[in-house]
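Exercise 3.2. Students should predict the tertiary structure of the chain below and write it as structure tokens, then compare their answer with the key that follows.

Predict this chain's 3D structure.
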Amino acid sequence: MRWPRPLVAVVDLLNRRGKSVGVRLVKYTGKSRHFVHPKHLVESPWHDWYVDYLSPAAVVLDVGCANGGHTFRAARRAKRIVGIDYDVAQLRIAATTCRRQGLDNVKLFAWDLTRAFPFPDASFDAALFLDVIEHLDPRVAVLREIRRVLKPDGRLLVSGPNRATSWRQQLRGAGLFAFSDPDHRVEYTPEEFLSELRAGGFEPMGPVMPVVYDTPWAGLIDAIGGVSLRLYARLHRWKREAALRHPEESTGFQVVARPVR
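Answer key:
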């Protein structure tokens, strides 16, 4: 059912502002030292799905590591991990957290992801590329560079956003900006996502996995997370369960892929 445009516009405004409100409230209410999304502060195994694909002997590259949220989770499973990102401010946060957690198997440094990586061929057993590809241009060249530095039997653990959910269609039907983040350069259908991976030299090793349900009330849920993590965790689980029932309505995709030589 098509919503009236004024209703879509109001809900969209609340949805987009709710995310930033939740991030700020997390710090202002003392739940974190830094501005972070509440999803990083509750138990959500599907958010850390990539950890199960890392071995204790793995040397891992985290492409676009930002403040190290995924880097440090992977570091507890892998032998060693290198995190690269262009954002120096985020890397400083990551370095501080790394020291505080006493992780000695993590290396972090600033790098423009669209440049050739400063690593020899076949240097890594696995690469994390999580919610980053949609921010980049060019993208296929970056995927090919990841393939270059992966070992022949290495694994790419990648995620990206879904543009084909019912809520995204409501936004487009109302003539509104439909991407989930204004910084995104692209969003995908499942077929488009897999096509881009193949263009970069990767083949999926299994099905495309869902994340959480793309509800128009996600911003309200995020704002609630800034006040009550317990209630947020319940709502977050509901979004996950709904995505498993309706994967076509997932906010994005999670894929395990192998390099094709």
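Discussion points: The helical segments are 5-28, 69-75, 88-101, 140-149, 166-173, 190-199, 218-227, 229-245. The longest strand covers residues 150-161.
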